[in-house]
Design brief:
Layout lengths: L1 E6 L6 H15 L3 E6 L5 H6 L3 E4 L6 H18 L3 E4 L5 H11 L4 E6 L1 E2 L3 H12 L2 E4 L2 H9 L7 E3 L19 E6 L8 H13 L4 E6 L5 H11 L5 E5 L4 H7 L2 E3 L9 E2 L3 H8 L4 E4 L4 H4 L7 E3 L4 H13 L1 H18 L2 H17 L1
Parallel strand pairs: 1-2, 1-4, 2-3, 4-5, 5-7, 7-8, 9-10, 9-12, 10-11, 12-14, 14-15
Antiparallel strand pairs: 6-13
Helix pairs in contact: 3-4, 7-8, 7-12, 10-13, 12-13
Length: 359
Protein backbone atom coordinates (compact mmCIF):
# COMPACT_ATOMS: atom_id res chain seq x y z
CA UNK A 1 0.00 0.00 0.00
CA UNK A 2 1.24 3.50 -0.78
CA UNK A 3 0.43 6.04 1.93
CA UNK A 4 1.02 9.81 1.88
CA UNK A 5 1.28 11.38 5.34
CA UNK A 6 0.55 15.10 5.08
CA UNK A 7 1.26 17.36 8.05
CA UNK A 8 3.21 20.22 9.59
CA UNK A 9 6.70 19.16 10.72
CA UNK A 10 8.17 22.48 11.81
CA UNK A 11 8.87 21.55 15.42
CA UNK A 12 9.12 18.75 17.96
CA UNK A 13 5.51 18.82 19.14
CA UNK A 14 3.01 16.04 19.60
CA UNK A 15 1.68 16.06 16.04
CA UNK A 16 5.15 16.09 14.50
CA UNK A 17 6.27 13.16 16.65
CA UNK A 18 3.04 11.22 16.15
CA UNK A 19 3.26 11.69 12.36
CA UNK A 20 6.88 10.53 12.24
CA UNK A 21 6.20 7.53 14.47
CA UNK A 22 3.19 6.47 12.40
CA UNK A 23 5.19 6.73 9.18
CA UNK A 24 8.03 4.69 10.65
CA UNK A 25 5.60 2.01 11.85
CA UNK A 26 3.89 1.74 8.46
CA UNK A 27 7.26 1.63 6.68
CA UNK A 28 8.46 -1.15 8.97
CA UNK A 29 5.51 -3.25 7.76
CA UNK A 30 6.54 -2.90 4.15
CA UNK A 31 4.33 -0.03 2.98
CA UNK A 32 5.59 2.70 0.67
CA UNK A 33 5.34 5.78 2.89
CA UNK A 34 5.73 9.35 1.68
CA UNK A 35 5.80 12.39 3.95
CA UNK A 36 4.46 15.61 2.41
CA UNK A 37 5.13 18.41 4.86
CA UNK A 38 7.04 21.50 5.85
CA UNK A 39 10.69 21.04 6.77
CA UNK A 40 11.65 20.42 10.38
CA UNK A 41 13.98 18.67 12.84
CA UNK A 42 12.39 15.21 12.41
CA UNK A 43 12.70 15.09 8.61
CA UNK A 44 16.21 13.50 8.69
CA UNK A 45 14.89 10.84 11.10
CA UNK A 46 12.00 10.10 8.73
CA UNK A 47 14.30 9.82 5.76
CA UNK A 48 16.67 7.57 7.70
CA UNK A 49 13.67 5.28 8.34
CA UNK A 50 13.15 4.99 4.56
CA UNK A 51 10.30 7.50 4.28
CA UNK A 52 10.41 9.64 1.15
CA UNK A 53 9.80 13.37 1.65
CA UNK A 54 8.20 16.14 -0.42
CA UNK A 55 8.57 19.67 0.93
CA UNK A 56 4.98 20.92 0.78
CA UNK A 57 3.91 23.51 3.36
CA UNK A 58 0.20 24.31 3.81
CA UNK A 59 0.94 26.67 6.71
CA UNK A 60 1.38 30.22 5.47
CA UNK A 61 -0.64 32.77 3.54
CA UNK A 62 -3.75 32.02 1.50
CA UNK A 63 -1.60 32.22 -1.61
CA UNK A 64 0.85 29.79 0.00
CA UNK A 65 -1.99 27.37 0.72
CA UNK A 66 -3.12 27.45 -2.92
CA UNK A 67 0.46 26.86 -4.04
CA UNK A 68 0.67 23.88 -1.67
CA UNK A 69 -2.55 22.43 -3.14
CA UNK A 70 -1.07 22.62 -6.64
CA UNK A 71 2.19 21.06 -5.46
CA UNK A 72 0.23 18.33 -3.72
CA UNK A 73 -1.81 17.63 -6.86
CA UNK A 74 1.40 17.34 -8.91
CA UNK A 75 2.78 14.89 -6.36
CA UNK A 76 -0.44 12.83 -6.33
CA UNK A 77 -0.47 12.64 -10.12
CA UNK A 78 3.01 11.12 -9.95
CA UNK A 79 2.61 8.89 -6.87
CA UNK A 80 -1.04 7.70 -7.22
CA UNK A 81 -1.28 6.67 -3.53
CA UNK A 82 -3.96 4.49 -1.99
CA UNK A 83 -4.27 6.72 1.08
CA UNK A 84 -3.63 10.35 1.96
CA UNK A 85 -3.45 10.53 5.73
CA UNK A 86 -3.75 14.16 6.89
CA UNK A 87 -2.50 14.77 10.41
CA UNK A 88 -4.04 18.24 10.82
CA UNK A 89 -7.47 19.63 9.97
CA UNK A 90 -6.29 22.68 8.01
CA UNK A 91 -4.62 20.46 5.41
CA UNK A 92 -7.67 18.31 4.67
CA UNK A 93 -9.65 20.52 2.22
CA UNK A 94 -6.53 21.14 0.16
CA UNK A 95 -5.68 17.44 0.07
CA UNK A 96 -9.23 16.54 -0.98
CA UNK A 97 -9.16 19.13 -3.78
CA UNK A 98 -5.79 17.87 -4.99
CA UNK A 99 -6.97 14.25 -4.90
CA UNK A 100 -10.08 15.03 -6.94
CA UNK A 101 -7.91 16.74 -9.53
CA UNK A 102 -5.03 14.31 -9.77
CA UNK A 103 -5.85 10.94 -8.16
CA UNK A 104 -9.61 10.35 -7.75
CA UNK A 105 -9.24 6.79 -6.43
CA UNK A 106 -7.10 7.98 -3.50
CA UNK A 107 -8.95 8.00 -0.15
CA UNK A 108 -8.38 10.94 2.20
CA UNK A 109 -8.20 10.44 5.97
CA UNK A 110 -8.02 13.01 8.76
CA UNK A 111 -6.27 12.06 12.01
CA UNK A 112 -8.15 13.88 14.78
CA UNK A 113 -5.99 14.83 17.74
CA UNK A 114 -8.08 17.62 19.17
CA UNK A 115 -9.57 20.97 18.19
CA UNK A 116 -11.01 24.01 19.90
CA UNK A 117 -14.64 23.44 20.87
CA UNK A 118 -16.33 25.78 18.34
CA UNK A 119 -14.51 24.04 15.48
CA UNK A 120 -16.01 20.57 15.97
CA UNK A 121 -19.49 21.11 14.44
CA UNK A 122 -17.93 22.92 11.48
CA UNK A 123 -15.36 20.20 10.87
CA UNK A 124 -17.91 17.40 11.27
CA UNK A 125 -20.21 18.97 8.70
CA UNK A 126 -17.49 19.98 6.21
CA UNK A 127 -15.54 16.73 6.33
CA UNK A 128 -18.73 14.73 5.92
CA UNK A 129 -19.53 16.66 2.72
CA UNK A 130 -15.95 16.21 1.48
CA UNK A 131 -16.22 12.43 1.87
CA UNK A 132 -13.30 12.29 4.30
CA UNK A 133 -12.66 9.37 6.67
CA UNK A 134 -11.54 10.12 10.23
CA UNK A 135 -9.21 8.32 12.61
CA UNK A 136 -9.40 9.77 16.12
CA UNK A 137 -6.49 9.34 18.52
CA UNK A 138 -8.66 7.94 21.31
CA UNK A 139 -12.19 6.69 21.93
CA UNK A 140 -13.25 9.96 23.55
CA UNK A 141 -12.21 11.97 20.49
CA UNK A 142 -14.11 9.62 18.18
CA UNK A 143 -17.27 9.84 20.24
CA UNK A 144 -17.03 13.63 20.40
CA UNK A 145 -16.87 13.95 16.60
CA UNK A 146 -19.80 11.56 16.16
CA UNK A 147 -21.77 13.62 18.68
CA UNK A 148 -21.20 16.66 16.49
CA UNK A 149 -22.77 14.92 13.49
CA UNK A 150 -20.07 13.01 11.63
CA UNK A 151 -21.24 9.61 10.26
CA UNK A 152 -20.31 6.78 12.61
CA UNK A 153 -19.47 4.41 9.74
CA UNK A 154 -16.66 6.70 8.52
CA UNK A 155 -14.80 7.22 11.79
CA UNK A 156 -12.83 5.00 14.14
CA UNK A 157 -9.93 5.47 16.55
CA UNK A 158 -6.43 4.24 17.23
CA UNK A 159 -3.97 5.53 19.80
CA UNK A 160 -0.80 7.31 18.65
CA UNK A 161 2.14 5.16 17.59
CA UNK A 162 4.69 4.93 20.38
CA UNK A 163 8.21 6.25 20.71
CA UNK A 164 10.77 3.47 20.33
CA UNK A 165 12.76 3.46 23.54
CA UNK A 166 16.34 2.18 23.47
CA UNK A 167 15.70 0.80 26.95
CA UNK A 168 13.83 1.71 30.13
CA UNK A 169 16.42 3.07 32.59
CA UNK A 170 16.37 2.86 36.33
CA UNK A 171 15.61 6.23 37.89
CA UNK A 172 18.65 8.23 38.95
CA UNK A 173 19.06 8.11 42.73
CA UNK A 174 18.76 11.64 44.10
CA UNK A 175 18.26 13.32 47.48
CA UNK A 176 15.16 15.05 46.09
CA UNK A 177 12.19 14.09 43.91
CA UNK A 178 12.28 15.29 40.32
CA UNK A 179 8.97 16.39 38.83
CA UNK A 180 8.60 17.05 35.12
CA UNK A 181 6.41 18.43 32.37
CA UNK A 182 6.70 17.45 28.70
CA UNK A 183 4.67 19.50 26.24
CA UNK A 184 4.59 22.49 23.96
CA UNK A 185 4.76 25.68 26.02
CA UNK A 186 1.52 27.42 25.07
CA UNK A 187 -1.69 28.55 26.78
CA UNK A 188 -3.48 25.25 26.06
CA UNK A 189 -0.83 23.04 27.69
CA UNK A 190 -0.94 25.53 30.58
CA UNK A 191 2.40 24.88 32.24
CA UNK A 192 1.69 28.10 34.17
CA UNK A 193 -0.79 26.02 36.19
CA UNK A 194 1.95 23.48 36.89
CA UNK A 195 4.16 26.25 38.23
CA UNK A 196 1.37 27.37 40.58
CA UNK A 197 0.98 23.83 41.91
CA UNK A 198 4.75 23.43 42.20
CA UNK A 199 4.81 26.59 44.33
CA UNK A 200 2.23 24.97 46.63
CA UNK A 201 4.41 21.86 46.94
CA UNK A 202 7.45 23.95 47.85
CA UNK A 203 5.42 25.81 50.48
CA UNK A 204 4.45 22.44 51.96
CA UNK A 205 8.15 21.84 52.56
CA UNK A 206 8.60 19.10 49.95
CA UNK A 207 12.10 18.48 48.62
CA UNK A 208 11.17 18.66 44.94
CA UNK A 209 12.47 20.16 41.72
CA UNK A 210 10.80 20.67 38.35
CA UNK A 211 12.07 20.09 34.82
CA UNK A 212 10.05 21.89 32.13
CA UNK A 213 10.61 20.23 28.76
CA UNK A 214 9.39 21.81 25.54
CA UNK A 215 9.45 24.96 23.47
CA UNK A 216 6.73 27.44 22.59
CA UNK A 217 5.50 30.98 22.71
CA UNK A 218 4.99 30.97 26.51
CA UNK A 219 8.63 30.16 27.35
CA UNK A 220 9.69 33.63 28.48
CA UNK A 221 6.42 34.26 30.35
CA UNK A 222 6.89 31.00 32.24
CA UNK A 223 10.44 31.91 33.19
CA UNK A 224 9.21 35.26 34.53
CA UNK A 225 6.42 33.51 36.42
CA UNK A 226 8.92 31.17 38.08
CA UNK A 227 10.94 34.21 39.16
CA UNK A 228 7.83 36.00 40.48
CA UNK A 229 6.75 32.91 42.43
CA UNK A 230 10.20 32.59 44.01
CA UNK A 231 10.78 29.09 42.65
CA UNK A 232 13.20 29.80 39.80
CA UNK A 233 16.09 28.14 41.66
CA UNK A 234 14.15 24.86 41.63
CA UNK A 235 12.82 25.00 38.05
CA UNK A 236 14.92 24.08 34.99
CA UNK A 237 13.74 24.89 31.48
CA UNK A 238 15.20 22.21 29.22
CA UNK A 239 13.94 23.45 25.86
CA UNK A 240 13.08 20.89 23.19
CA UNK A 241 13.85 17.35 24.30
CA UNK A 242 14.62 14.56 21.84
CA UNK A 243 16.33 12.07 24.16
CA UNK A 244 13.33 10.80 26.11
CA UNK A 245 15.38 8.04 27.72
CA UNK A 246 17.66 10.61 29.35
CA UNK A 247 14.69 12.80 30.28
CA UNK A 248 12.70 10.07 32.02
CA UNK A 249 15.80 8.68 33.75
CA UNK A 250 15.72 11.84 35.84
CA UNK A 251 11.96 12.47 36.15
CA UNK A 252 10.22 10.62 38.99
CA UNK A 253 6.67 11.97 38.42
CA UNK A 254 5.17 13.52 35.27
CA UNK A 255 2.72 16.40 35.75
CA UNK A 256 0.27 17.36 32.99
CA UNK A 257 -2.04 20.36 33.46
CA UNK A 258 -3.59 21.17 30.06
CA UNK A 259 -6.36 23.76 30.09
CA UNK A 260 -8.93 21.60 28.31
CA UNK A 261 -12.52 22.25 29.35
CA UNK A 262 -15.55 20.64 27.72
CA UNK A 263 -14.86 19.82 24.07
CA UNK A 264 -11.64 21.83 23.87
CA UNK A 265 -8.24 20.41 23.05
CA UNK A 266 -6.42 17.16 22.46
CA UNK A 267 -7.83 13.68 22.60
CA UNK A 268 -4.83 12.10 24.31
CA UNK A 269 -1.40 13.64 24.70
CA UNK A 270 1.78 11.82 23.73
CA UNK A 271 3.33 12.70 27.09
CA UNK A 272 0.99 10.30 28.94
CA UNK A 273 1.99 7.42 26.65
CA UNK A 274 5.67 8.34 26.87
CA UNK A 275 5.54 8.35 30.66
CA UNK A 276 4.08 4.85 30.45
CA UNK A 277 6.90 3.65 28.22
CA UNK A 278 9.37 4.77 30.88
CA UNK A 279 7.43 3.49 33.91
CA UNK A 280 6.84 6.99 35.25
CA UNK A 281 3.66 7.75 37.24
CA UNK A 282 1.42 10.54 36.00
CA UNK A 283 -0.74 13.11 37.77
CA UNK A 284 -3.12 14.84 35.36
CA UNK A 285 -6.70 16.00 34.79
CA UNK A 286 -9.72 13.82 34.06
CA UNK A 287 -10.16 15.24 30.55
CA UNK A 288 -10.50 14.00 26.98
CA UNK A 289 -8.89 10.56 26.60
CA UNK A 290 -6.67 10.68 29.69
CA UNK A 291 -8.99 8.36 31.60
CA UNK A 292 -8.61 5.67 28.93
CA UNK A 293 -4.94 5.29 29.92
CA UNK A 294 -4.70 6.73 33.44
CA UNK A 295 -6.91 4.76 35.83
CA UNK A 296 -7.18 6.76 39.04
CA UNK A 297 -5.15 5.14 41.81
CA UNK A 298 -4.07 2.24 39.56
CA UNK A 299 -1.94 3.66 36.75
CA UNK A 300 -1.72 7.27 37.96
CA UNK A 301 -3.91 9.96 39.50
CA UNK A 302 -6.64 12.11 37.96
CA UNK A 303 -8.29 15.26 39.27
CA UNK A 304 -10.92 17.58 37.85
CA UNK A 305 -9.67 20.75 36.18
CA UNK A 306 -8.95 23.46 38.75
CA UNK A 307 -8.61 21.13 41.76
CA UNK A 308 -5.17 22.45 42.69
CA UNK A 309 -5.19 21.22 46.29
CA UNK A 310 -6.18 17.68 45.33
CA UNK A 311 -3.66 17.66 42.49
CA UNK A 312 -0.96 18.75 44.94
CA UNK A 313 -2.13 16.11 47.44
CA UNK A 314 -1.63 13.34 44.87
CA UNK A 315 1.83 14.62 43.98
CA UNK A 316 2.74 14.84 47.68
CA UNK A 317 1.56 11.27 48.23
CA UNK A 318 3.90 10.08 45.47
CA UNK A 319 6.79 12.24 46.66
CA UNK A 320 6.65 10.54 50.08
CA UNK A 321 6.12 7.03 48.71
CA UNK A 322 8.72 5.72 46.22
CA UNK A 323 7.09 2.29 46.37
CA UNK A 324 3.80 3.77 45.13
CA UNK A 325 5.68 5.54 42.34
CA UNK A 326 7.13 2.23 41.19
CA UNK A 327 3.76 0.49 41.47
CA UNK A 328 1.89 3.08 39.40
CA UNK A 329 4.73 3.39 36.89
CA UNK A 330 4.79 -0.36 36.29
CA UNK A 331 0.99 -0.48 35.94
CA UNK A 332 0.97 2.43 33.49
CA UNK A 333 3.71 0.75 31.47
CA UNK A 334 1.67 -2.45 31.23
CA UNK A 335 -1.50 -0.59 30.21
CA UNK A 336 0.25 1.48 27.54
CA UNK A 337 1.82 -1.59 25.96
CA UNK A 338 -1.46 -3.49 26.10
CA UNK A 339 -3.45 -0.77 24.32
CA UNK A 340 -0.73 0.89 22.25
CA UNK A 341 1.81 -1.72 21.21
CA UNK A 342 3.17 -1.44 17.67
CA UNK A 343 1.17 -4.52 16.72
CA UNK A 344 -2.07 -3.06 18.06
CA UNK A 345 -1.54 0.37 16.49
CA UNK A 346 -0.73 -1.23 13.14
CA UNK A 347 -3.77 -3.51 13.35
CA UNK A 348 -6.16 -0.68 14.19
CA UNK A 349 -4.64 1.63 11.56
CA UNK A 350 -5.10 -0.99 8.85
CA UNK A 351 -8.66 -1.60 10.05
CA UNK A 352 -9.27 2.14 9.79
CA UNK A 353 -7.98 2.26 6.22
CA UNK A 354 -10.29 -0.66 5.40
CA UNK A 355 -13.28 1.57 6.20
CA UNK A 356 -12.77 3.13 2.79
CA UNK A 357 -13.41 -0.22 1.13
CA UNK A 358 -16.72 -0.71 2.95
CA UNK A 359 -18.43 2.62 2.27
Amino acid sequence: MKIIISTFMGGLGGTENASYRLGRLLKSHGHDVVLASSDGPLIPDAQAAGIRWYGIDFYGSATGYLKAVLQFAKMLKKEKPDIVHCQMAKIVPGCVAAAKLASPRTKVFYHARGLMAPTYPKIAKLFDKLGVYIIANCRHERDKIIRHGFPEERITYTYNALHQADYVPEKTVKDYVQLGTLSRLDHIRAVHLTLEIFKMLVERGLNVRLNVAGIGEDMEDLKRQAQDLGIADRVTFLGGVRDLTAYFREVDILLSNPKCIGDDCAGLGNNILEAGIYKTPVVTYRMSGNGEIVINGETGFLTEFGEKERFADYVELLVHNPGKRRELGEALHKRVFTLCSDEEIYRTTMAAYAMADKT
